Amino acid sequence: MTQLQTEQVWQALQDVPDPEIPVVSIVDMGMVRGVEVDGAKVSVTFTPTFSGCPALHVIRQSIEDAVRGLGVADVEVVSTLTPPWTTDAILPDARERLRQYGIAPPAPAGEGLITLESEPTRCPRCGSFDVTLTASFGSTLCKRLYVCGSCKEPFEEFKSV
Amino acid sequence: MTAPTPTVTELNAARTAALIRKLTALADDEIILAHRDGEWTGHAPILEEDIALANIAQDELGHAGMYLELRRALDGSDPDRLAMFRSATEYTNTRFVELPRGDWAYTMLRQFMYDAYEALWLEAAQHSTYAPLAEVAAKAVREEKFHVQHTALWVERLALGTPESTRRTQTALADLWPHAAQLFQPVEGEDELVKAGIIPDIAGVRSRWEAVMVKHLQDKCGLRMSRDSFPGPARENHTEHLAPLLAEMQQVARQHPNAEVW
């Protein structure tokens, strides 16, 4: 086998979808922190989005499978919590794909962690700010539910963390 | 999850033992409260709240998992074994989290009181001199933000709602307040950990927590608060409610101890 390039591993990981939001990949989501190729061994460092996310073991397995798909036998998946994942790590074009998929992308996370007010949100379909939070938790840990007062459509928003 | 490497230089044997006790106590509170919250699945007043409480419970279990991974790095214990194969006498959660879920006001108020405590503890624990704990705290505190927002709003809605909801919320507060004191009971050897900057001083967390409680529960929601302070029993002393909870929670794991796929 010819020497594997780091770039090829990143390319393979670009095809690993987020199990709960398949329009974006784990690379788009900013979950992959680093790739190291050391001879025949590949090490991938990733960071979890939410600590209680039930998809974590699926993601680890998908990373391993994707790298093995390149013909690598020795794959190591390392997880890190530092710095903690934030929605600011989501790549710009992935934010646009989230919006097209019907999920309002997260507002900038910034600091001030314990606040009792939530950030402004716009409808992913018509762009209106006339939206009402209907539930602060949604179908997955990372989303909450809104309804648009302008186009009347319900939608999900990615929480800014 | 990969266990963080402990910074051995900061931990002697006594501190390691105390830190294991503290991490286990933190995890146990999360596990038991998550189970109580999970009891509402399929029974909450509306679908959205059913989902919300399940989400919150899932986060708390995630935090328990992180604490127990920290413990694993110290003594090699398996988080699943600790959660599923310890009896009531071995669990070190507070009575505050093991009491039956009660009505919706009781559940929301307990969750609010707990979330505020947890958020404040984690906020301070981000400055731990023990890097693995500081990392876990920085991760978990971001998730607690959503819990506090959600439960604070529910408590306000119930306290200022109808005479019935006000009465229920007031009753829940009178019941819960004495038990909340137990959250602030240090574990054996905790003072040594505080001196080394490994964990935050629980008395400081408590005074900030009480200020948040007064501001929200009394000033904003108009609830009457007790001024009495309660000592709170040791964490090993449980009510009769814990054993049946564990029997239900651990049933499948104990029946199939060798199962590989859950």
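qc> Chain B touches chain A through 35 residues (CB under 8 Å).
qc> done
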